[in-house]
């Protein structure tokens, strides 16, 4: 320890000199001066930067105010031009009305024997005559059902396609009443035909099993009937036509005089009809009244003007020959009256178009209006049809009492016909006092096949119809399983009746992305991408077509592909196939969405439709912050971000890859009151000419599809 200490002291040499107090004060003074100098430099630098920032801010603010003033100055002119362009919507509505009238006329001159379901006497006569027809076989009923289903679909389309302001309450009641009567009569005819078949069961018995089996397949109906003639207690597994479709029945049914019927209707005539909205009709009635008053006022003013001019001509005609004067006055008066009448007609037409434009606007607004609350509070096990949707039609499952069989006698067939008709076998019975075991009436295992054209994105749920409550419910059903490769659903059912498959109506919402792309002349492609699928919809004039479906990155074939349909028919067909990308007024209760002001959203869709023939629009990640649109002219590969607030459109400085959102205006751009004029600033003359020459029907159809999908709110 000592040697180390001495070595250290020797190495350090002489001792370090202490700093004096004066030197310490001098150092502190120098440090203080240096600190003050640095602070002063920092202050000067900060003030300079702040002045520069404020100056830039002032210039930008001044420029912003100048742009706002310029926008305000030309707003009236731009809105007037937009109003002229949006005249395509009432014009398209007029064409729809003409098409509906032409359709009625074509049906009238066709004279094919089928009734016009919209005309009450014709459809009532058809129903009465069909009721009188008796002893129809299942094959005859199925053949007749094709016409009946067409009539029902036509009435449903009339209710859907006719705007609410063109529908009267009495017509709605008439159409809905005819639909219900046709549905009930069709099902009754199936019951009567089934009874006729079961009377002949003994003559149609299978040689191997001794029981009767009948299978009839059609495009709208698939019917399976099995009659238990042998009553073999070991014959508990009923399978139709060597398929897996059928039942596992308990011993008590295997030994009873029963028949099993599975009637799979590919349509749904069980779920109650949806009510037709009335709010718009009330609004239109008020507007109609105001417009009629305005037209009447214009006609009165014209008549008064004619009378005054006639008096003035009489006072000024004293210096001319009386006969010549009379002739000139009459001819002049007639010409003038004709001119004024033409002017009156033009005024009346202008007022009517104004009314039509207002009512179309109201109808479009109704499509995107969110409901304030759910229809009512649902009970336990009741299916909420605002949240779920039925798929694949309805499976009518029935256990029927076997009617008396026909017997041959001296070349005749004698059969006892029961007055009460076809009777259902009650299972389980209402009283079970005579039964010893508790499990004598177990649930019946049922295996069904899912309709081929229905797409399921998850295992379906099974619901049964509650005839008393008039709704679907999920109780009384257990052990549900689904084999997607075979498209078979198996479950256990406590009591028989109509059952259906249900799926979440919003399984494809919200959307992951969307794109609206122009194709050939007057054709547009709408692409919607969801978690499970990508759907491409081609729009041409007043028709829509399913271009393609992609499931799990693989193209899926659908029977809907290649079929042109009107927008409403197309939407109904997609929903029935399980491809629901169309939110309802209650969907926001079940999906997390980007809430938009409905009026701004409607304006955006209308203006997107106007530009859709020459420009592509697509989803943007910034849509979660502000209502704006990605836009791409056909001539340029790069996308440009636009922001639209209903009364102002602007190009944004940021792009899709920016880290934060900013409303900063892109350099050398201006504000505009519409998307049309915003795009006009940087678009080619050829593109704008294509926009102005677009078909009014195409614009209307694109707008309707945008309003129906609500891609801005549900992406």
From TrEMBL:
Recorded coiled-coil stretches: 15-82
Polar residues: compositionally biased ranges: 330-341
Ranges of compositional bias, category Basic and acidic residues: 301-314
InterPro entries linked: CASC1_C, IC97/Casc1_N, IC97/Dnai7-like
GO cellular component: axoneme
Keywords, sorted A to Z: Coiled coil
Domain spans labelled CASC1 C-terminal: 470-627
Family, as annotated: Belongs to the DNAI7 family.
Protein name per Swiss-Prot or TrEMBL: Dynein axonemal intermediate chain 7
Organism for this UniProt entry: Mustela putorius furo
Source organism phylogeny: Eukaryota, Metazoa, Chordata, Craniata, Vertebrata
């Amino acid at each position: 320890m000592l040697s180390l200490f001495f070595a250290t002291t020797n190495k350090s040499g002489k001792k370090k000199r202490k700093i004096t107090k004066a030197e310490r004060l001098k150092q502190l003074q120098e440090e203080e001066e240096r600190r003050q100098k640095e602070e002063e430099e920092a202050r000067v630098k900060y003030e300079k930067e702040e002045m520069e920032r404020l100056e830039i801010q002032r210039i930008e603010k001044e420029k912003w105010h100048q742009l706002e003033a310029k926008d305000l100055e030309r707003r009236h002119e731009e809105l007037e031009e937009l109003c002229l362009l949006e005249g395509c919507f009432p014009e398209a509505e007029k064409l729809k009305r003409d098409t509906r009238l032409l359709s009625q006329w074509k049906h009238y001159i066709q004279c094919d024997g089928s009734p016009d379901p919209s005309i009450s006497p014709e459809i009532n006569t058809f129903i009465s005559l069909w009721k009188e027809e008796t002893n129809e076989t299942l094959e005859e009923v199925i053949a007749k059902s094709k016409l009946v289903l067409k009539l029902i679909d036509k009435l449903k389309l009339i209710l859907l396609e006719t705007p609410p302001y063109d529908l009267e309450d009495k017509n709605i009641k008439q159409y809905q009443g005819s639909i219900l009567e046709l549905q009930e009569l069709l099902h009754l005819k199936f019951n009567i035909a089934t009874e006729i078949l079961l009377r002949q069961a003994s003559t149609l018995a299978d040689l191997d099993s001794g029981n009767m089996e009948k299978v009839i397949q059609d495009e709208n109906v698939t019917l399976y009937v099995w009659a238990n003639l042998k009553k073999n207690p070991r014959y508990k597994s009923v399978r139709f036509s060597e398929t897996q479709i059928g039942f596992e029945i308990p011993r008590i049914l295997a030994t009873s005089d029963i028949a099993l019927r599975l009637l799979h209707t590919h349509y749904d005539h069980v779920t109650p009809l949806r009510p037709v909205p009335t709010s718009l009709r009330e609004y239109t009635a008020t507007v109609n009244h105001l417009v009629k008053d305005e037209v009447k006022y214009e006609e009165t003013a014209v008549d008064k003007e004619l009378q005054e001019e006639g008096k003035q001509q009489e006072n000024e005609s004293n210096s001319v020959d009386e006969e010549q004067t009379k002739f000139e006055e009459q001819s002049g008066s007639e010409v003038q009256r004709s001119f004024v009448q033409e002017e009156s007609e033009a005024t009346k037409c202008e007022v009517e178009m104004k009314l039509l434009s207002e009512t179309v606007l109201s109808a479009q607004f109704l499509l995107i209006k969110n409901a304030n609350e759910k229809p009512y509070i649902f009970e336990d096990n009741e299916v909420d049809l605002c949240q779920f949707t039925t798929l694949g039609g309805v499976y009518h499952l029935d256990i029927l009492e076997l009617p008396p069989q026909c017997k041959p006698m001296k070349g005749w067939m004698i059969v006892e016909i029961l007055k009460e008709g076809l009777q259902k076998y009650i299972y389980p019975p209402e009283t079970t006092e005579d039964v010893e075991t508790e499990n004598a009436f177990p649930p019946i295992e049922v295996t069904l096949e899912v309709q081929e054209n229905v797409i399921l994105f998850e295992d379906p749920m099974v619901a049964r119809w509650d005839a008393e409550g008039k709704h679907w419910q999920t109780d009384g059903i257990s052990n549900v399983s689904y084999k997607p490769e075979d498209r078979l659903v198996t479950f256990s059912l406590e009591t028989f009746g109509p059952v259906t498959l249900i799926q979440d109506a919003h399984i494809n919402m919200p959307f992951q992305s969307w794109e609206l792309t122009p194709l050939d002349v007057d054709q547009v492609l709408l692409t919607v991408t969801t978690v499970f699928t990508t759907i491409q919809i081609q729009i041409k004039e007043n028709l829509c077509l399913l271009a393609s479906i992609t499931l799990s990155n693989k193209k899926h074939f659908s029977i809907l592909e290649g079929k042109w349909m009107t927008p409403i028919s197309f939407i109904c067909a997609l929903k029935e196939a399980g491809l629901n990308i169309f939110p309802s007024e209650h969907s926001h209760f079940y999906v997390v969405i980007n809430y938009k002001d409905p009026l701004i959203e409607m304006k955006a869709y209308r203006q997107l439709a106007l530009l859709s023939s020459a420009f592509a629009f697509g989803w943007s990640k910034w849509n979660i912050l502000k209502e704006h649109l990605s836009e791409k002219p056909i001539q340029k590969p790069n996308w440009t971000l636009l922001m639209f607030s209903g009364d102002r459109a602007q190009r944004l400085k940021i792009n899709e890859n920016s880290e934060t959102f900013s409303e900063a205006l892109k350099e050398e751009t201006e504000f505009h009151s519409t998307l049309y004029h915003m795009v006009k600033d940087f678009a080619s003359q050829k593109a704008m000419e294509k926009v102005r020459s677009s078909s009014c029907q195409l614009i209307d159809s694109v707008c309707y599809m945008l309003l129906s999908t609500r891609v801005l709110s549900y992406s």
